[in-house]
Amino acid sequence: MNGILFAPGITHYEYPCKKEENAAEPWQIFRIAKRKLSQNTIQQIFGENARLIDDWAADPRYCNETFRNPIQEIRDLFFELDRAGYADYVRDAIEYLSGD
Description:
By secondary structure, this protein is mainly α. It folds into 2 domains: 12-66, no CATH class; 68-100, no CATH class. It is built from 5 helices and no strands. The protein has helices at residues 26-36, 39-46, 50-56, 70-83, 87-98. The longest helix has 14 residues, at 70-83.
């Protein structure tokens, strides 16, 4: 497993994370989604293959290979829009995402 030591029977896809129920990191949100929804559902939403979704949900503390996920990319987009003077659009997008 890429030189990473795991407890017997545990892979980087199953590694427990202590903040799982109160996910604060984007990878944790994808990890919870993988456990609570079917892989097929996530693939249909994002149009990506299972391996990439696994990488989005990988705990960077224990995995050699992780990829930036859509939550991280949206955050970067919002930051750049705000920096360019379009904070109103960012607020509108956040309001849309919150369902209000």
